[in-house]
Structure formats: structure tokens, C-alpha cells
Design goal:
The complex is a heterotrimer, with 1 copy of chain A and 2 copies of chain B.
Chain A (H helix, E strand, L loop, with lengths): L12 H11 L9 H17 L6 H18 L8 H4 L5 H21 L30 E2 L2 H13 L11 H20 L2 E2 H5 L5 H16 L3 E5 L6 E5 L5
Antiparallel strand pairs in A: 2-4, 3-4
Helix pairs in contact in A: 1-5, 2-3, 7-9
Chain B lengths: L2 H12 L6 H7 L5 H18 L3 E6 L2 E6 L4 H7 L9 H13 L2 E2 H8 L4 H9 L3 E6 L7 E5 L1 H6 L12 H9 L1
Antiparallel strand pairs in B: 1-2, 3-5, 4-5
Classes of the chains: A mainly alpha, B alpha+beta.
Chain lengths: 243, 175, 175
């Protein structure tokens, strides 16, 4: 076997497998599994001997290949269900390979398209240079997106002395949703009972979050809660009356 | 040149992103969607007939002036910096997202057979991919999709312009 | 159009700064200073005769395409209707509010390490942030939160769709 090709050119174990299939001029739907497994393992061994970083995924596929090979060597088990008899142990792998191959080809065809800033270019002049009379704002603007938002937050948190206190989790954000909802309604209706806040949708999760949101708002001194008698309705008011 | 065509030329030229026909219709007085479309047609034809260095491209759901691909060697001489190319790993990840969107990261990992975290982050930073939302399954994983900038960079009118995947059809019949 | 004129058109269009005749001469093969000057002349005249929305202007010792002054009112309309864009300062302030809401201004100041008055005012004007109430402590400080429009602009069903820092970090750790 000749090793003239560079070993780090594979984009993953499926890519290596596709390469071996092409190299041996094999029909992808009828892979001689013993041959391919042997070559695949040989490549892994070589990569290891060259101290190349061998990602876990390569070993996982090696295990899969060995497993398929052993299955194909076994004679059909007596009494096995009719339908399973026809099942090719390679089927799942073949399907995965075909799928990966399709996307690999799609990636190449994307790359062959006329690309912006490689094959064609848009107006180079900045916006404010387009007309003599108008002085545009020079500040760089960011088009908004969720990724940009969380990245901005991360930048700030990274600069803090105690970033751990800024750790946010899904729970806290869900609570913020409920808090916003309560504040909007309080603004409109000036006072509300706990029952009114929960409304028609009496799911457990919603009740808990409503309760937690009210506690949080009381802690923040944003709402006050009163109860008329031991079993009376709990009424919630804004802590500060807007004039 | 017809005055309205001239205004459209100025608007498309001044716009930072591809300008939609809807936006043009909104700005131009006394024009409906159909009128704008035929004025745009006229402008596209005019640039074609001139045979100059730029043309009016229909891209990412809008219109934008772009240099002809034959001009690329000269412009590359002007812009000394090499354009930032995508690595094969990034291209494959992008292809999976483009064809299968909206989808979660574990699905991309599965198709490519590797952990795509690094490639995915790079695509998010380049604004070719965006966070679309969360999937309503346990763990609420983040869903990804391509951006308008993806269409702009790959010179696509819309996603339906992506070439179809021949093999995917085979797969569907096989499975 | 003459091929060399077409190349000049593409070069001037793609250049970030006004392009000098010297630079053009350097890029175009088999042209001297005088040749470039006459080709530029030709291009300027062509745009004049077309009477379109843009023209080739000689500015700052170089050449650049610009929109005609008569087009200014239309372009102002275009700029007024542009999609949501935020300055980095506004984006960071918005991020703090989105992730830490409801909170008071002094808290945002503390986290960002600067006075956020300006950014906050802009976000209120853009209706991405709103006053949700006041805190019952001395000074009765105003409490801020995000709006429904914030969710619309960022294409979120609700706040729980915001990615967490951990999810962002997971993307970063690999490769």
C-alpha cells in the first residue's frame, strides 16, 4: 500500500472510508468489509505512529467496521426471524456513507459557485462616501442576531472580576419571561390576584414560575403582595405608584 | 434614462445589502410591485447591453451591483489581501446546514461523523449561519440555519436555487 | 464597451477609497498614464450621457462612483428604512439587559463598567428596551427590561430561546 497521500487531509472517519472505497474502485453499496476494515485499521495505525491527533470518532468507526465484519462472518443463526435474515449488516453504514458523500459533493459544488469577494465584488466605498453633501455616521454598526447578542454578553462577562456570578441558566431566563409578562399586566391593571396571573392555563410549570417570579419581584422591591385574611386572595400591586 | 430607472440605480447602488423589490416599491412614489419589477428588468438589460465591468445581480431576495466574474483577476490585484476562504470542514458543515436546515448540532455531527463545534462557531462568526431558535425536545437544543449573508456570498437568489442533491433521492428510496 | 474601460469601471467600483489614475495604470497592462486618463475620460462621459442615478466623480485625487445629488431625497428614504443595526455599545448594553433583566441602570453601569445613559436612551427610542417599573428603594430607580419588539427583531419566541453562556462556550471549546 502506498502512503503518498497526506494523512491530515481527511475531514473525519467517513471521509477516510470514502477515500479507501474510491481508491479500491469499490461499489459503495457492496463493500468488501474485510478488505476495507484491514486498510482502515492500517491507516489508523499509521496515523498513530506519526503521532497525529487521532480523534475518538476514528476509533468509533473502527469498532463499527470490526463489528460488521464479525457479523458477516457468522453463519445465519437458527430460528432468527425471517425479515432479519435479509438484513445486510452493512446497510446502516452504507446509508451514512451515501449521505455524507452527497454533502461532501454539495460542499464542493458550493465552492465552485461564483463567490463574493473571490469571483465578484460589491461596491467598495463606504456608505458615507457615496454622496458629497451628506456626512454619514462613522460608527460601525452590527446587524443584530442572537449569536451577536450572546457573544456581546460573553465579552462583558469575561471582563468582570467575578464572572461566575453572571452565569445564566435556562431557568433564570424563563423566569425573566414570566416577570416581564407580570409587569406588563400590572401596568395595565394596577392590581392583580395570583389566580388572575396564572389564568386559564393551569400547568404545573406555569404556576411554579409565576410564584417564583412574584417572589423575585418582591425581593427586587418591585411589587408588593397583600393577602386579605388567612385564606384570602393574594393581591399584587406595583411597589411604586406611577404618577 | 427614465427617471425612475435612474432612482432605482441610485438606490441599489447606495444600499449596503441587496435591495428588495418591495423596498424599492415602498420608496418610489406611484409604483406598484409590477411596475418596479419591469423597471428593474430594464436596468438589468441596460447593464447587460453596455457590457461594462459591473452588472445588476439578483441575489439573496434582492438586487445588488456586482463586478463581473471576468473582472476578478484585476480586482484581486487591487485588493492585495487574499479573501478569507472557508476550510473544507467549514464548507461541509455549511452544506449540511444549507440543505437540512433548520437542524440541531447533533444532527450535523452525525452526518459529518465528527464533532463540528469549531466549524460551526466559525460559520456563526462569519455570519453565514445563525441561531434560529430552540427545538422543543428535552434539553431544548439550539437550531441552526443559514443567513441572508450566506445567499449573498454564494450568489444565490434564494435557497431553492441550491442544486438538488442527487444522492439524497437515492437515500430516501433506500430507507 | 471597450474592455479596458470595463476593467476600470470594475476597479473603481470595487475600490474602498477613491482610486487614483496611477494605481489604475499600475494594474492595467500596456497602459501609460496618458492612456489611463483618456480611458477615464471616456467612462466619465459615458455615465454623463446615460443620465442614470450614479456618476463617476473625481475626488481626493482619485475616482469614485457616487449618487447624483438629485437622488439624495430618495437615498435618505432608503436609509430611514434600513434594518435594525446597533452600535457595539448598544449591543452590549442590550445583551446585559436581555440576560439580567429586570434590572436598574446602576446595575447595567456596574456590569459594563461605563455610564450607559447614551446607549440606554437609544435602545428605549428603538423600543428594544422599556421601563418596566420602579424599585421601592431610596431614589425609586427605574427598572428596565426587553420588549416584545426585542423578541421580534431577534426572532425569538420568548426569552428562554436565548442561548446560555454555557452553550456558547461548548461551541468554543472544540478545536
Amino acid at each position: 500500500m502506498s502512503y503518498e497521500i497526506k494523512l491530515d487531509i481527511f475531514e473525519g472517519p467517513l471521509d477516510l472510508l470514502l477515500y479507501l472505497i474510491r481508491k479500491n474502485e469499490i461499489d459503495i453499496t457492496n463493500i468488501p468489509i474485510a478488505l476495507i476494515t484491514a486498510q482502515y485499521l492500517e491507516y489508523l495505525e499509521m496515523m498513530r505512529s506519526l503521532n497525529l491527533d487521532l480523534a475518538g470518532e476514528y476509533l468509533l468507526l473502527a469498532a463499527t467496521l470490526v463489528h460488521i465484519k464479525s457479523k458477516m462472518l457468522l453463519p445465519p443463526v437458527e430460528g432468527e426471524l425471517e425479515e432479519e435474515e435479509g438484513e445486510d449488516p452493512r446497510a446502516e453504514l452504507v446509508q451514512q456513507l451515501l449521505e455524507y458523500q452527497a454533502f461532501k459533493e454539495a460542499a464542493l459544488s458550493l465552492d465552485r459557485r461564483p463567490l463574493l469577494d473571490r469571483d465578484l465584488f460589491t461596491r467598495g466605498a463606504p456608505e458615507e462616501a457615496l454622496s458629497a453633501e451628506e456626512g454619514g455616521e462613522p460608527e460601525a454598526l452590527i446587524e443584530v442576531g442572537v449569536f451577536e447578542l450572546v457573544a456581546a454578553f460573553r465579552r462583558i462577562v469575561a471582563g468582570l472580576e467575578r464572572p461566575e456570578e453572571m452565569e445564566i441558566d435556562a431557568e433564570k431566563i424563563s423566569l425573566a419571561d414570566r416577570i416581564n409578562e407580570i409587569l406588563v399586566r400590572l401596568e395595565e391593571e394596577k392590581q392583580l390576584t395570583f389566580e388572575e396571573l396564572i389564568g386559564e392555563r393551569r400547568e404545573r410549570r406555569r404556576i411554579i414560575y409565576t410564584f417564583l417570579a412574584i417572589l423575585e419581584l418582591m425581593k427586587l422591591r418591585m411589587v408588593r403582595a397583600y393577602q386579605s385574611g388567612p385564606f384570602g386572595a393574594i393581591r399584587i400591586f406595583p411597589a411604586v405608584e406611577e404618577e | 434614462m427614465d427617471e425612475k430607472v435612474a432612482i432605482i440605480e441610485a438606490l441599489v447602488f447606495a444600499s449596503e445589502a441587496p435591495l428588495t423589490a418591495d423596498k424599492i416599491t415602498e420608496i418610489l412614489p406611484g409604483t406598484d410591485r409590477k411596475g418596479t419589477a419591469s423597471l428593474l428588468e430594464e436596468l438589468i438589460r441596460e447593464y447587460e447591453q453596455r457590457g461594462g465591468g459591473i452588472f445588476l445581480a439578483e441575489v439573496a431576495g434582492g438586487f445588488q451591483f456586482r463586478t463581473r466574474t471576468e473582472m476578478a483577476p484585476w480586482i484581486r490585484k487591487l485588493k492585495a489581501a487574499r479573501p478569507a476562504m472557508l476550510s473544507p470542514a467549514a464548507m461541509e458543515t455549511l452544506a449540511v446546514i444549507a440543505y437540512r436546515q433548520p437542524l440541531v448540532k447533533s444532527e450535523i455531527d452525525r452526518i459529518r461523523g465528527v464533532d463540528v463545534s469549531g466549524a460551526l462557531k466559525g460559520l456563526l462568526e462569519k455570519k453565514l449561519v445563525r441561531i434560529v431558535g430552540r427545538k422543543d425536545v428535552p434539553g431544548k437544543p439550539i437550531i441552526y440555519g443559514t443567513t441572508r449573508k450566506f445567499l449573498e456570498v454564494f450568489n444565490l437568489k434564494d435557497l431553492s436555487e441550491l442544486p438538488t442533491l442527487r444522492e439524497l433521492k437515492d437515500l430516501q428510496t433506500a430507507s
